[in-house]
Amino acid sequence: MTSSARRTVRFDSARPAAFDVAREVAGEGFESLLVRDVLGRFSLVIDDHGEDGTSRVTSEQATSWRSLLTDRLGPYAGERPLVLASAMPVARTLLASTRTIPDPEDPTERVRFLDNTVVGEDWSRVSTPDQTGTTPVRRTAVYGFKGGVGRTTATALLARDLADIGKVVLVVDLDLESPGVGPLLLGDGRLCRHGVVDHLVESAVGNTEDLELVTRSGYEPANLGELWIAPARGAGEEGVPNGYVDKLNRVYADTAGARFADRLAATLRACEDAVERSESGRRPDVVLLDSRAGIHDVAAVTISQLCDLALLFGADNDQTWAGYGDLFEAWAASGQAPRIRKRLRMVASMVPDSVHHSMDTYLESFRTSAYRCFSALYDTIAPGEQSGPDAYSPGLEDDSAPHDPIPILFEPGLVGMNVPNSPRWQERPFVRAAYLEFLATAVELVLAGPEDPEEYGAP
């Protein structure tokens, strides 16, 4: 076949083609590592060391594999498509990297994958939340692929309900580009001087001492509960410009010995510690993470590494399912489905309920669409086969499954409501009615904790 007749290789088709070559190499007895650079190009690093330290790869094999990579990947073949570890000492470091993940279709783990990206890398790094202290904190992420789905309002209401049953609740505003949960909860309280962004900036230069990261809400919960807020943006130092935009431009950088994910986790722990050091002296029982929307590094770290439970908000439309489909496909492709799927639960926001639009009909459609989307994360069981003890494939009507939606009713009164000028807005009957089922279900899920902590344990 002439080069002009070859099928054009695009980004989407390059990855499966690269894995095919890597598996062929593995079939000849060599462990290898596929490395994708920030432009999407692939190089294959082969562990070719023999017992005597020399290469086990013949020149004919190397030439053949290099040609396969070049021919099948086209413009997505790396500048050095084939690298033999014996010829490049730095390749040993790549082969031993803790950032590699196994080929999900190769149980022998002879093929591993290392993805180098500018953003979004942490979607495929699913791990157990790092806890400190004797009592684990329940951490719940509240996330929406698209904005405007009522995520922040739901966070505020959930926080109050948890505090009202006697829990010490900390709400951390991780929507750094569009902070907003603070004003919903602050009430008559005073905003603290510093915020999440300040800790991220100051920690990079070892300057976090005496930061004021949390404040107590003016709301007084029942049953000795407490409600604390860690805002994204603090009030700032008196007489000094806040410089929030300048700080925001620097928070996502990796620093020496610490990736952004590590730094964000450290900031979260600092906020939890600040509550415990307060006059209360109590460590948070529950932390609610109001996450950034979209495919963003904050959301990636929050859902994949910081939380026990992720409430995924959405409306029943093509945008919702295309967005979540992309995320689920990324988890499935990186072999992380078993670690993440039981951590997730869909929330159907702004559900219509009228004579023209039945809530039941809407939720049935939502559930069906969510089930199709989640199928990428569920195990496939062939007809007539028995599922193994570790298989996870809940049915469409399973009301405890991740795809089963928790409803929040659409309420016109919430549209455009100026919360700071609406005292006790959370107690209004139309608000409570819209969020009634969501709050009852979400409180139960948050307090239950992870169903099986080992399911998504750190690799």
Describe the protein's architecture and organization.
Residues 141-179 form the CobQ/CobB/MinD/ParA nucleotide binding domain. It contains 13 helices and 13 strands. By secondary structure, the protein is of the alpha/beta class. It folds into two domains: 3-116; 124-378 and 398-456, P-loop containing nucleotide triphosphate hydrolases (Rossmann fold, 3-Layer(aba) Sandwich), CATH 3.40.50. α4 crosses α13, α6 (196-203) crosses α8 and α8 packs across α9 (297-306). The longest helix has 20 residues, at 429-448.
Quick tags:
13 helices; single chain; 459 residues; eight-stranded mixed beta sheet; five-stranded mixed beta sheet
Q: Uncertain runs with pLDDT below 50, 5 residues or more?
A: 1-5, 453-459
CATH class of the largest domain: Alpha Beta
Domain module tally: 2
Q: Report the principal-axis shape.
A: globular
In spatial order, strands of the major sheet run 8-9-7-10-6-11-12-13
Largest sheet at a glance?
8 strands, mixed
Oligomer: single chain
List the total number of helices: 13
Q: How much helicity do the residues have? A: 25-40%
The appropriate CATH architecture of the largest domain is 3-Layer(aba) Sandwich
Organism: Streptomyces beijiangensis
Domain CobQ/CobB/MinD/ParA nucleotide binding: 141-179
Protein name: AAA family ATPase
